[in-house]
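Board work, copied verbatim: RNA-directed DNA polymerase
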Amino acid sequence: MLSNADLLELVKAKYKTEKKINLYAEYISKLEERSVPVIFSFYHFSDILGISPKTLRAMSFDTHLFYKSFEIPKRSGGIRNIYAPYPSLESVQRWILTNILEKAFCDFLPMVVGYQKNKSIKDHVSPHASSECILKFDLKNFFPSILFDHVYLIFKNIGYCHSVSKILSSLVTFNGSLPQGASTSPCLSNIYMKIFDAELTLYCEQKGFFCTRYADDIAVSGGVELINCLKSIKKLFNDNGLSLNHAKTKVYDRAKEVRFLTGLVVNKGVVRIPKEMRRRIRAQCHLFIKEIDCLVSNLPRPEYKLPSESWKNKELVFDPIFPERILGKLNFWLFIEPDDKYALSMKKMIEEKLNEIV
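↓ predict structure ↓
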């Protein structure tokens, strides 16, 4: 890819009028300030990517040919539609993410913990653990509600011209909105939320509250006066064009009650995994250990007595990724509760027994 200085020399060689040269120089300078690549046109972008204009045009205007869709069940019930790009489009989206979005936007507020390096749901929940009251909000249809026009404005505000902003927006949207499954969607969603995040942060600082956002889950915590601010906080969502899933709005107004935030439990100031998850992991670990013991001792495999909905694959030892799955669940448990004796001992036991059958 040519340097910006080389690009300007090419502009000077092609155009003779000072007005035209100055326009291009200003365009290059604006993008240079944001540390993003200079893209003049569709064909220039095609050259930068090393993709034929025909292929890039298909990716931009026949986007449906470059996605596969499938459904996954939501934890809270219902179905979530996932649109996963094929490798060719995924590589272009990854280029846009790495070279444009992550360079132009690297200053998200501390309250943003979703899709951020070295941050997790634990960072979303922990700041609220000792608060007397917590308000929990959920945004309705988060990715689908961020439309092509919203994305276009993001690229336009970076400094790209109309045609380039339109091409970039086409490459990272599907059916007119952000697809859940594209690598660019999480970052774009955080960029889209920047104004709301700033307004909510300022409001909470003025009131002495804490706030965090993990994707479409927002939590605000503080003292008993927080409950009287529910209407004002809801107005912030409405003023920014954000639709709440009111069925998931939750008010926790007693410090001793069990609170649920983003799949974790807060009880008496301590963050833990839910009882049901704990029970399920224990059951899976127990049966997995029995299977390994039977395999090592050449004994008949144990009978399965777990509920069918909790157990999709009963060939545990012989499932090549199950050992990684169960260890991953134990690692998550220990990430949330580092000192849990059961998770520590079970992880050690499984690792030792896996070494016996290697």
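The domain at 133-137+190-271 is CATH 3.30.70 (Alpha-Beta Plaits).
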